[in-house]
Amino acid sequence: MICVFDTLNHLPRFELWEALFACTRAHLRAGGLFIFDVNTVTKIHGLAAYPPFFLEAGPVTVAMNVDAPDGNGLSQWNIWLIERHRDGSLSGLHEPSGSSASSWKRSKMASDGRFHGARDAR
Q1: Contact criterion met (CB below 8 Å) for 73 and 41
Q2: Distance CA 84, CA 88 (A)
Q3: How far apart are CA 76 and CA 98, in angstroms?
Q4: 29-42 burial, b for 16+ CB within 10 Å, e for fewer?
Q5: What letter does residue 44 receive in the DSSP assignment?
Q6: Would the pLDDT of 88 be above 70?
Q7: Residues 10, 4: Cα–Cα separation, whole Å
Q8: What pLDDT does residue 115 have?
Q9: Contact status, residue 75 vs residue 69, Cβ threshold 8 Å
Q10: Does residue 65 register a pLDDT over 90?
Q11: How far apart are CA 99 and CA 67, in angstroms?
């Protein structure tokens, strides 16, 4: 079973991470693998230190920035799409995406109790 692209980070509380680990364990066959990746608090702080990212894609500009996690490990990814129209006008869309983060140690401790031989493949 795989869970990639930092999917766990979209669960807003660590208790939900633990519930996901428990549910996954209940459905995993003996000897099966559960592979997941996460953004840790340290990684999110690093991303938040960067200036906004911009990408020009024809008439559309994509902009993205990350807000540093608050005291509960919650951060926000801000994504903007700005379209330049032929008449020179602009239209845009802002899509905020909440994200939770945990330390690698806490994530590993929560998964170790449920998965035999949990390993860090960083």
Answers
A1: yes
A2: 6
A3: 5
A4: eeeeebebebbbbe
A5: H
A6: yes
A7: 12
A8: 74
A9: yes
A10: yes
A11: 10
For residues 46-83, one letter each, b for 16 or more C-beta atoms within 10 angstroms of the residue's C-beta and e for the rest, the string is ebeeeeeeeeeeeeebeebbbbebeeebbbebeebeee
Q: Which residue has the tokens 């008439």?
A: 59
CA 108 to chain centre: 16
Over residues 4-20, the pLDDT tens digits come to 989 999 998 889 989 99
Burial of 21 (0-12, 13-18, 19+ CB in 10 A): buried
The mean of the pLDDT values for the chain is 89
What is the C-alpha to C-alpha distance for residues 62 and 119, in angstroms, rounded to an integer? 36
In tens, the pLDDT along 17-41 reads 899 999 999 999 988 888 888 888 8
pLDDT digits (tens, 9 = 90+) for 97-122: 999 988 878 877 777 777 766 666 66
